[in-house]
Structures are given as C-alpha cells and as structure tokens.
Amino acid sequence: MTPNQFRQLALSLPEAVESSHMNHPDFRVAGKIFATLAGGEEWGMVKLKPEQQAAFARSHPEVFEIFQNGWGRMGCTKVVLKKATKVVVTPAMVAAWQNIAEAPNKRAKRPVKNRARGRAR
C-alpha cells in the first residue's frame, strides 16, 4: 500500500477530511483524528479500541504493530505500508473511523451521517 492509497482510503469515508498536526497528515471526522500518515509517510496509524487493536495485530502481525507507549495502550496502531494491502487495511480504517464518528462529541454541531448504515449518528 502506498501513502496515497492509505490517504485515499481514509478520505473515502463519510465526512473525512485531511488536516495536519506535528508536521504530518492526519485524517479526521467530526474534528477528531482517526488515522495519520507519519514516518516520512512510510507508515500510517489507525486509532482502534484496544480489543480491535489486539485482533488486527494478531491476524496480520506483519501489517499492524502496537506502539509500545501510552498511545499504543490507548489503541493507536501502526500500519506498515510496505506490507499492507487495501483488503487488509480497509476493515481497520473503517473501525477507526467508526470509533470516532460514532462516539459522542460534545463539540460537534451536527451528527456524522454513516452512509454504510444510512442513518445519522
């Protein structure tokens, strides 16, 4: 998977936008980050729940790595782009998007519409 394919996948999700922080691209929904590109765009990150993270890392350990820090313990999961494919990364990207899009957001002015289910959150 190339950095551009990772970017396109993230931006294909409803209401996803590209922004930037700490000198690298991030992808947000409802103003919150669900994925990033980093390491000179050699790797990505998806923000999963810890149980999701464990499942993806177990099923594809060459693609998904758990960061060995506080961010990793909270579900931030490294995606090794050279070993990744769209088929493998898509379910993790969708899960990361859902974790943010479907979470209560006190600052959001309107719910994010989940086109996959056809209803607003």
Give a quick summary of the entry.
The protein has 121 residues and is of the alpha+beta class. 32% of the residues lie in helices and 29% in strands. The protein has a single domain (3-120), classed as Aspartate Aminotransferase, domain 1 (Alpha-Beta Complex).
Alpha-carbon distance between the termini?
31 Å
The mean pLDDT is 89
CATH secondary-structure class: Alpha Beta
What is the fold named in CATH at topology level?
Answer: Aspartate Aminotransferase, domain 1
Binned strand content: 25-35%
Please, what is the oligomeric state? single chain
What structural category characterises the helix and strand content? alpha+beta
Keywords:
alpha+beta, two-stranded antiparallel sheet, about 120 residues, six-stranded antiparallel β-sheet, 4 helices, Aspartate Aminotransferase, domain 1
Word description of this protein:
The chain is of the alpha+beta class and 121 residues long. It has one domain (3-120): Aspartate Aminotransferase, domain 1. The protein contains 4 helices and 8 strands; from the N terminus they run αββββαβαβαββ. The strands form 2 sheets. It has a 6-stranded antiparallel β-sheet. A two-stranded antiparallel sheet has the order 7-8. Helix 1 packs across helix 4. The model has no long low-confidence stretch (mean pLDDT 89).
